[in-house]
Amino acid sequence: MYYHLIYFYLLLNAKLFTIIHCLSNGDETSLTFTIHVGALNSWSVLMFLIILTVFLGILLLYFIVYQLPSQMKTIIDASKTDLLNAYTKNIRTKKCRTLEDLTNFTPLQSYKTYIINNYSPMETIEMLINEAKQTENFSCMSYRDNKLYAAHLVLEFIQSTSSIIIDLKLHMYNDEYMRKIRELLSIIFSSKNTIYSWGDLQYQVMYCTIHAMSISDQIKQSIQVDVQYHFKKWYNQTFHHDANCLQRLDFIQEDGYQCSCSHRPYKHKTDIWSMERAIMFTFQEDLKLTPNHLKDCLVITKLAAVIEKARNREEVEAFMKNCIK
């Protein structure tokens, strides 16, 4: 309706200019023919058109000042509501899909587990020493058994076809065992080896109070990779903000309070990822289904591998498919 009114107003102005032009040239015949007014004289037609033009101008001005803003506001509000509803529906769909599809954690490859304590056969420790000499990549995690008041160091020997997991109880009182364990750890933490950890490796090791074994200097010589530190930057660069996220910038993929992305659970750049959430949001796997300290190293290894091999979502999906195979 308003478009027709504007069109008629512009057409009327064109006719008015035609009348003025004809009157200025004294051509009243062409004027009368142009506007089809018959018996009315030219000046009457001119006055009538001027009044009509002013009236329509006032009407259009009223529409622009009072009606158009309210209609635009209604349109904008409706658009915001539609976008919000669509976004909310999308978030709910993502949450439902994640909860339904979450599976148990799957390591990259098969593994054998050895529990090392005062009762372990010396042959087992000798075998582990030989395996450590042939291995260059390890993952490391520590925990404390509050029931037995014992500190444990969990280590994974990352090998080509399978892994070896050892759960090392560090409070041993047998001198022969202590000597062999010190030898094993000295080989693992040598300068040629890479040690993956979740958090600061020095803290992980000192948490187990193995400083009595005199290998703290040896640990500093190893190549230490804090997977937790590298994961945050990798994840943000791999899983970008959604197109409608207020935190999204063209060149920066940092976390922020304005972020509304469901796939980015942390909303501040100083937040750090927990191991459980890292494996959950990257691989849609749940560690809580089978809680086990021995699997922590397997998780670290898997996250370190995807950081090194995948640079975008497509490569992450391809990595996951290879893991399933």
TrEMBL record:
Keywords: Membrane, Transmembrane, Transmembrane helix. It comes from the Eukaryota. The chain crosses the membrane at residues 6-24, 45-65. This is Uncharacterized protein. It comes from Rotaria magnacalcarata.
